[in-house]
Each structure stands twice: as C-alpha cells, then as structure tokens.
Write a structure and sequence with these properties.
Blueprint lengths: L9 H19 L3 H22 L2 H5 L8 H10 L5 H6 L14 H6 L4 H26 L3 H10 L7 H6 L3 H24 L6 H18 L4 H17 L2 H10 L11 H14 L6 H6 L9 H17 L3 H17 L7 H18 L3 H15 L4
Length: about 375
Amino acid sequence: MGHFDFIGDERLRESLERDYAEVVTANQGEAWKTVHVLVGSIVEALLVDYLLGIDFQKRSGTDPLKMDLSTLIVTCEKEGALSTKAVQLCSAIRGYRNLIHPGRVVRLSEVVDKNGAIVATAVMRMVIDEISAKRKEEYGYTAEQIVSKLERDKSAVGILGHLLKEMTESERVRLLVKVLPNRYFELEMSLEDEFSGGSDDAEKLALLSRCFRTASGMILDEGRKKVAKEFVEVLRKENEHTVFTYETAFFQAGDLQYLSGTDRDLAKHHFLSRFAEPLTLPLLKASEGLAGFLAKDDISPLVDKLVWTAVHGKPPVLAMEARKFITNLWMNLPGGEGGLDSLVVSRLDDWISHLEKEGQPEKAQIISEIKVECGDIPF
C-alpha cells in the first residue's frame, strides 16, 4: 500500500504513486525543476479529484477540471479540505505552470533551486495528509487504507471491527472482492522469494485472511452474493494454486448459501474434492458450515477422511480439529427419523468394528469417544 490509499479510483491512484516515486528520484538526482512540476501536478490532481468527489460542479456550476491551481487551492480551503497553513505554503508551488510555459520570458522568470524543491515536497505531503483526513471524515476508510493500516500496525486487528464500520458498504464489498485478495497474492509472491519474504509477510497474510472473514460478516446479502460469485470465478478461471489459496484464505463453506444452481454445485463439489487429499487446518476452517449443503451420498466419504485424520493425523492439533469437525458435522446435519446425522453415527460404528477386527483397540476407542460426543451414547 502506498501514499494514496485514500484514492478510490485505481488508475488515478497508480498514476499518483508513479509521480510520487518520480518526485523522490528527482530530489535524489537534484532535478529541481522536475520536482516542482511533478509536485504541482500531484497537488492539482488531488484537489480536482476531491472537488469532483463532493459534486462541487453540481453545487456551484463550476467545473473543477477548468480551474487553475490557485483557484483550486482557495476553493478547497473554503470546502474545509485544506488548512490555512497549507494554503499559505502552497504559494511555493502555484507558479509551477510557468516552468513548462512556452514563453521565454515567463519561463525564465521562475527560479528553481534545492530550497524551493524541499518546500514544495513538504507542501505536497501536507496536502496529501489533509486531503486523506478529509476523505476519511466524509466517506470513511477506503479498502486500501484498511489493508495499509493492518500492514503498518498489527495491533489494529483489535479494533478491526470499528475500522470496518467506518467504511461505506460499497467500499467493504470492494475490499472483499478485489483489494484483499489482490494484496494477499502480492504478499504471497514475496514470501516465495527467499530474498524478500519472511515471517512478517506470513503474519500479514494471516491478518488479511482474518480481515476478510470479519468484513464478510458485516456486509449485506447482496454484497455477499458478489463475494461468493467471485470465488466461483476463481474456480473457473485460475490455476490450482490460486484456487486452493483463495479457498482456504477467504471462502468458507457456509458462504454457499449465497450461491445457487450450478454455481453452488461447483463450489460444493470442489470443497468435497479437497477431502480426497490430506487434510489441513486451513481447509477444515474453510469447511465450516458445509453440513447444511450435504446430501446422503456425501456423508460416508467425508466421515471416512475425518476419522482417518482424527486417528492418524499429525500434528496432534490437526487430529483434534478433525475430531471436533465430526462432532460439529453431526450436530448441524438434519436429524430425526432417517436424518443425515444418523449416517455419521452409523459410519462411526463401521470404523469401530473395523478397527477392533484389525486388532487396534486404542484407535477403536478414539472413535467410540467421538461417537459419544456425537450422540451421547454410553459405551
């Protein structure tokens, strides 16, 4: 995340980031005229974008795109977006247009030097800070600001719910559909690079995943449908690694309720296909809520894999989580006569009988304990 994470338009944000990087390079290379021109351009773009964002033209009849920099500065002060101090300091960059003016006399009348460049850069940063603060005050956090905050301040996870509440609904949905997944995969790529990845990035990945689940619980059903649909698009278009990562980091089986028809069938069957492979803690976490979408034929193979993991899985925490999953599965399946929950208990009986015949009473005992946890049946 960069300096302009308060800008919602991706193309404008990327353009401003590039210009900012050039300002840094120009300062290092003592290209003072370049610094002045770029700083003026960045400030002008920020002020125009702010006024467009508050529908200034509709209210005033004046098009911000046709204002000169001086007018933009004064107007933004009146709108409360710039402080008096910032406006006064902006005099350092008001004349930037003269530096690219074709007239010889006008161009040569402007003096550019290191001191001016230092002041102009400082003013630019002040304008960035003030416009960012005003944007947050009026519209709440942008998706980029939430991600940037989590990466800079890990303790922010403690107030994540409060931060997310200060976002608009559309911005929360954009966070879930685009910004969080994109940033997650960027960081994951850096982890794979032995020269740039590290435990810090791994911790950030966990925070982004947690943010996703928290935010998804705060959006309306219409937004949840968009988020679930995005997962289906990933299933259909992306490679295996991306699919598996997205599935365990962001999607949860309970989100199947926001899909219908072939989309729901596709997502459900993909989840179940993952149980043919060795189970992992992230997969078990992602599979929460799966019980509500299972059919009769799904039960036995699912229980088989969970039982095997409960008995043989390593590390021990994985075996324990598989055991808990069986219990939760039984609790959330339809009950009553002929209910799917009875199929879980029946399959556990099959395993107990099998293990006893194989001379593995200790493992049979584990399954018997799980059966008690499920049906409260004494043994």
